[in-house]
């Protein structure tokens, strides 16, 4: 691996930042989350090593968030689903905010496999 692959450039994190933003917009317009995860899958293999952790975090955020949302939707029958859905929204916002902060500092995500924050 040469120095070019390990040094962050100004444009290297643009697509990852776009995916974080698409996830946040998906709170209002749900389809943007699907677009975001597709972009994450497409761009992760060509990304520098420090950015691959963000793509892994983004992909896991989509799938875990989808799981929480489905569980919340099923539990709507017994009304506890609202609590799960609200938790999922807060969880998504915190994960995206944390990821964006690390991305702005050009730092890899310290634990991209976590289920929480």
Characterize the structure shown.
The structure is a single chain. Helix content is 68%, strand content 0%. It has helices at 3-6, 14-25, 31-43, 49-75, 81-104. The protein starts with a helix and ends in a 13-residue tail after the last helix. Mean pLDDT is 88; it is low at 1-8.
Question: Concise description?
Answer:
With 117 residues, this protein is mainly alpha-helical.
Head-to-tail CA distance between termini: 30 Å
Helices and strands: which structural class?
mainly alpha
Which oligomeric state applies?
single chain
Average pLDDT metric: 88
Radius of gyration of CA atoms, rounded to a whole number? 15 Å
- The tally of beta strands, per DSSP, is 0
Q: Into which percentage range does the β-strand content fall?
A: under 5%
Share of helix, binned: 55-70%
SSE succession:
HHHHH
Q: Which stretches are poorly predicted, pLDDT < 50 over at least 5 residues?
A: 1-8
Major β-sheet annotation: none
| Outline type | elongated
Q: Helix segment count? A: 5
Q: What descriptive keywords fit this protein?
A:
single chain, 117 residues, mainly alpha, 68% helix, elongated
Could you give the topology of this structure?
Blueprint: H1 3-6, H2 14-25, H3 31-43, H4 49-75, H5 81-104
Helix pairs in contact: 2-3, 2-4, 2-5, 3-4, 4-5
């Amino acid at each position: 691996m040469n120095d070019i692959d390990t040094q962050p450039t100004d444009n290297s994190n643009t697509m990852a930042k776009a995916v974080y933003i698409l996830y946040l917009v998906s709170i209002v317009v749900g389809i943007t989350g699907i677009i975001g995860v597709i972009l994450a899958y497409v761009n992760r293999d060509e990304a520098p090593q420090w950015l691959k952790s963000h793509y892994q975090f983004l992909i896991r955020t989509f799938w875990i968030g989808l799981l929480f949302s489905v569980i919340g939707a099923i539990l709507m029958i017994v009304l506890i689903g609202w609590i799960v859905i609200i938790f999922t929204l807060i969880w998504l916002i915190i994960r995206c905010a944390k990821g964006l902060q690390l991305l702005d500092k050009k730092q890899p995500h310290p634990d991209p496999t976590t289920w929480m924050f």
